[in-house]
Amino acid sequence: MNAPLSVKNISVAYQKKPVLRDVSFQIPEGKLIGIIGPNGAGKSTLIKAILGLIPKLAGDVNIYGQPYKQQRKMVGYVPQRESVDWDFPTNALDVVMMGRYGHLGWFKRPGKKEKEMAMNALEKVGMESYADRQISQLSGGQQQRIFLARALAQDARLYFMDEPFVGVDAATEKAIISLLNELKNQGKTVLVVHHDLATVEEYFDWVMLLNEKLIEIGPTEDVFTKELLKETYGGKLAILDDKKEQSVILS
Ligand SMILES: Nc1ncnc2c1ncn2[C@@H]1O[C@H](COP(=O)(O)OP(=O)(O)OP(=O)(O)O)[C@@H](O)[C@H]1O
């Protein structure tokens, strides 16, 4: 079977400044995969390049063996919260329903079925009572939940989530991680840009270490090691010795 995601020799530059160099990897199906690396490592850029949201200098991306353009329906994307215009005048239900548009044919308006699926997704993230609320009037954590609901409503097979835990409280973080596990248990594959090194081993089956180039990708127990983390973060990272404590200090 084709891999959910296969990336070959991707390079990206902004105004000629290289940000990603020759990144290649494949991932297996049904895993939660953390994308880890320091600020500015190119994590968001990698996702955007995969989804064709920014131009690549070089490289190929295949989703289940086909280019992204042909596989759009299979892919869900939760962007970084601050990259979204939350003043856009629309309510929570409509934002979630947008997740269904890829499934509708030309000129078809969302109908009862779409609305039902969107409401189900809102229920899953505990936001059903906010369906009619303008998105500008939601808190940061609530907005994050709405975006997750949109991805759920889309019913994709491969998800990209850019820092879904930023700015959410502990309860929302728990709710999000149990949703991610639910997706995984349905055989879906989820890539998550993540910053909190202390939770990596608990949350992810696989880890990708990135800093302009791919340092390593593979099962968490093989890749989330002191040596490879040092290589990824350079001198900026001090790791307390007992790995079980997983205490990580950024100097
Ligand atoms: N639109 C842009 N124009 C110019 N440079 C950009 C642009 N977007 C990102 N960059 C630069 O590209 C590099 C990678 O940025 P990117 O957002 O992919 O990193 P990241 O690993 O997601 O960082 P963070 O952990 O801080 O979110 C950074 O040096 C950033 O300043």
TrEMBL record:
SMART domains: AAA. GO terms for molecular function: ATP binding. Gene3D superfamilies: P-loop containing nucleotide triphosphate hydrolases. Keywords: ATP-binding, Nucleotide-binding, Transport. The keyword Ribonucleoprotein does not apply. It holds the Pfam family ABC_tran. Residues 5-237 form the ABC transporter domain. InterPro entries: AAA+_ATPase, ABC_transporter-like_ATP-bd, ABC_transporter-like_CS, Metal_Ion_Import_ABC, P-loop_NTPase. CDD domains: ABC_Metallic_Cations. PROSITE patterns: ABC_TRANSPORTER_1, ABC_TRANSPORTER_2. Belongs to the ABC transporter superfamily. This is Metal ABC transporter ATP-binding protein.
